[in-house]
Amino acid sequence: MKSWINLLNEVYGGFLEDDGWAIASHIALSMLTSMFPFLIFVTSLAGFFGSKELADEAAALLFDSWPQKVAAPIAAEIHNVLTQTRGGLLTIGGFLALYFSSSAIEALRIGLNRAYNTHETRAWWLLRLESVAYVIVGAVTLLLLAFLVVFAPLIWLKILDYAPALAPLWTVLTVSRFLITTLALVATLTIAHKWLPAGHRRFRDILPGIALTLLLSLGFAEGFGQYLAEFARNYVSTYAGLASVMIALVFLYSLAAIFLLGGEVNAALLRCRAGEGAAAANPSENPD
């Protein structure tokens, strides 16, 4: 019990020392401002392949894990933006949307570098190109997932033509949307912790922080959704027309803090293992 308390103290102490609350606010604002450019790029990419429906489904998948009270106002505004056909993938506007949508990834990199106490030695332009590449991979992956969701019923009907005995499995497949969202979140967290910050970490080194982030994020999203169902009017009375924006910022701010805590947990455990390894290598210094 004492060791767990020491670990929690070290994690939260590191979070405060690394300006976790300030970095979390930076990540939240960067994510909110990057969301529209990212979805504009996704829409352009979907239009390039000739399918507007994929862009709509991709946006819906993006908000699946958000509480309804948080996602609904932003989704409505995004829908207004995405209703316009965008085919300018290779125009200056398309490149600008791609560039600005990578700012959120740079914010995550800054937070993780602080959490892991690492310093960047790579050139800034190389890091920005890497962030842009992540945005492109994320957009393509999101569209592929949307493709599976949109066309899964049609594919399933074709399968039933040849194997009607599989019909009862459709009930299981209806939960695939939540499963897809969860797997996408796990993959995103893994990539972020393993490759975004400087240095090298093994998968087992980042697994505790990923598990903690996933559990706390899902739990917070559920609790925050229930809170808004009862007290959303408090935001309306305080922020008036800006209520939906403030709700989204508070939600993203809290998720960013949870994300950084995951990094601090991994860093604390790495320091603990390093201390144990040093003690094992020098047993004479530890007479007990």
Secondary structure: elements and pairs:
Layout: H1 2-17, H2 20-48, H3 52-62, H4 68-82, H5 92-101, H6 103-115, H7 124-162, H8 170-173, H9 176-195, H10 203-239, H11 243-281
Structure commentary:
The chain is an all-alpha fold. It has one domain (19-272). Helices cover 81% and strands 0% of the residues. Helix 9 packs across helix 10 (203-239). The chain starts with a helix and ends in a 7-residue tail after the last helix. The model has no long low-confidence stretch (mean pLDDT 82).
Envelope shape: globular
Tell how many strands the DSSP assignment holds.
0
Q: Can you give the helix content as a percent range?
A: over 70%
- Residue-averaged pLDDT: 82
Radius of gyration: 22 Å
Q: What's the story with the biggest beta sheet?
A: none
* Helix-and-strand structural type: mainly alpha
Helix-strand pattern, N to C? HHHHHHHHHHH
Rounded to the nearest angstrom, the distance between the terminal CA atoms is 21 Å
**How large is the count of helical segments?**
11
Number of individual domains: 1
Approximately how much beta-strand content do the residues carry?
under 5%
Question: Which regions are unreliable across 5 or more consecutive residues at pLDDT < 50?
Answer: none
Brief sketch in words of this structure:
Helices cover 81% and strands 0% of the residues.
Q: Which keywords apply here?
A:
81% helix; globular; mainly alpha; 288 residues
